[in-house]
């Protein structure tokens, strides 16, 4: 079993979610999808008719919204005021607005505090947790014994996103998926507040050529050595 935190960061379309959930299930650990938390706040912003670019209004709303995420790798749940919105938070309007919302420092401060408290709770219970996001190794859990950063070429990431959308019954063309993925990663990497970047001590895997299964096998080994 895993002890401690595995921090799993990287841009979209690198296989991060599949790797994180599979690894957590194999290791009998908990799982935290921090992206889902930013998506939940974003959905609340859109539903309230707040302009995602209005940082003051976004921060004010973020203080009031009630979001919840499950920590089971088999069934990760995303709740907004008790309503299951697991599908709605993956739709294109949320994809378009989430980078603006997650760039607001107050939003990050609120969610990072909440992520740390969820992590502490899970560590007390099962003893291990795989946490996926953009700033886990750099900000949320800088002391994690294992930090992983996944990358992949633009082509591969766009193709994975498009395949995911199609599998989930959402309309998607490779060109649109590429534009959406590239735009979001550019915004996430260039924002001032804890931008997407690999921690200095992260193990970097390029998943363009590697099969996701190979990444999972390699990480299971690393986790059992370091966890
Ligand atoms: O991982 P996912 O693609 O669901 O994340 C959605 C968005 O949430 C990212 O594009 C990024 O803007 C934001 N995010 C973040 N920090 C995290 C996780 C996600 O800023 N730790």
From TrEMBL:
It is found in: Cytoplasm. It comes from the Bacteria. This is Cytidylate kinase. HAMAP family: Cytidyl_kinase_type1. GO terms for molecular function: ATP binding; CMP kinase activity; dCMP kinase activity. Residues 160-186 are annotated as: Disordered. CDD domains: CMPK (cd02020). Transmembrane segments: none annotated. Gene3D superfamilies: P-loop containing nucleotide triphosphate hydrolases. Residues 6-223 form the Cytidylate kinase domain. It comes from Prauserella shujinwangii. Residues 172-186 have a biased composition (Basic and acidic residues). Signal peptide: none annotated. Its main location: cytoplasm. GO terms for cellular component: cytosol. Its EC number is 2.7.4.25. It catalyses: CMP + ATP = CDP + ADP; dCMP + ATP = dCDP + ADP. Keywords: ATP-binding, Cytoplasm, Kinase, Nucleotide-binding, Transferase. GO terms for biological process: nucleobase-containing small molecule interconversion; pyrimidine nucleotide metabolic process.
């Amino acid at each position: 079993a895993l002890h401690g935190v595995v921090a799993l960061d990287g841009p979209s379309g690198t296989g991060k979610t599949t790797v994180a959930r599979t690894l957590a299930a194999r290791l009998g650990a908990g799982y935290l999808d921090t992206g889902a938390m930013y998506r939940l706040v974003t959905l609340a912003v859109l539903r309230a008719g707040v302009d995602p670019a209005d940082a003051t209004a976004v921060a004010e709303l973020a203080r009031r919204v009630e979001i919840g995420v499950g920590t089971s790798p088999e069934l990760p749940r995303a709740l907004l005021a008790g309503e299951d919105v697991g599908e709605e938070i993956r739709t294109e309007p949320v994809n378009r607005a989430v980078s603006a919302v997650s760039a607001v420092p107050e939003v990050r401060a609120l969610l990072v505090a909440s992520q740390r408290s969820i992590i502490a709770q899970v560590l007390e219970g099962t003893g291990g947790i795989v946490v996926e996001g953009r700033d886990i190794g750099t900000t949320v859990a800088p002391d994690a014994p294992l930090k992983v950063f996944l990358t992949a070429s633009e082509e591969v990431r766009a193709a994975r996103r498009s395949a995911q959308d199609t599998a989930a019954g959402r309309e998607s063309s490779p060109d649109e998926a590429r534009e959406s993925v590239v735009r979001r990663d550019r915004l996430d990497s260039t924002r001032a507040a804890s931008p997407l970047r690999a921690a200095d001590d992260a193990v970097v895997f390029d998943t363009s050529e590697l099969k996701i299964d190979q990444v999972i096998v390699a990480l299971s080994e690393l986790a059992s050595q370091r966890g």
